[in-house]
Amino acid sequence: MMGLREAPGVYLGFISLHVLAGHLGASLVHRLRFGRSPLAYRSAAADSAHTRVTRRISGVSLLWAGSVLAAAFWPAWSVMAWGRPLLPIPPLAGWVLGVVGLMGMLWAQYGMGPAFRIGVDAGEARPELHEGGLHRYSRNPIYMFSYLYLVGASLWAPSVVTLGACAALGGLFHQLVLQEERFLADRLGEPYARYCQRVPRYF
Question: Mind listing the pLDDT tens digit for each residue in 2-45?
């Protein structure tokens, strides 16, 4: 199987699906299904702490993407200490994790129905507690599968920078999860507490 350097268009095209399908596509599908946008972070009452972490995620994501682009198009990158691959990983391993992660993320988003949101709107009415679909097994399947996708794509260019940015994004995702859990616990009370007792945070 050809690697990132030999077929950059294929690899980078798949990487772009995370943004196009997982964010823009999911927002469009939600609007068509329910007549409103799920982009809670754009509301005037959007939670400021959540928004700050989201901006940090954007910054680290740019670093991650830059390292992958360098690995694909800049041969000198792969001989530098911070760009050299740390492990000889077959491209297929990244593809398996990436495809499973992307499909799981989209499945979890679609399965949430009208409860799906991107961000936290502190001024919104009491949110709906969604316990069906993949949320029967994990309280955060969207984050979990999104990160699995990111890990898979990182294995195509496993340098210090790429893997370091991937680890940092995992920590930032966890911060978002903790903030959202506090928001839901405050809004939903005992039903959410019982849900947390039955279902693990991730897996």
Answer: 999 999 999 999 999 888 888 788 888 888 888 888 877 666 66
Taking the whole predicted model, whether its pTM rises above 0.90 is answered as yes
Tell me how far apart the alpha carbons of residues 193 and 203 are, in angstroms, rounded to a whole number: 17
CA distances from 163 to 68, 74, 114, 115 (A): 10, 18, 35, 33
3-class SS of residue 71: helix
Q: How far apart are CA 146 and CA 113, in angstroms?
A: 18
| Distance in angstroms (rounded) separating the CA atoms of residues 48 and 70 | 33
The single-letter code of the amino acid at 101 is G
Around Cβ 189, how many Cβ atoms within 10 Å? 12
Cα–Cα dist 135/144, whole Å: 11
pLDDT in tens, 83-126: 999 989 999 999 999 999 999 999 999 999 888 888 877 777 77
Give the contacts of 122 (CB within 8 A, at least 6 positions apart). Answer: 45, 46, 47, 183
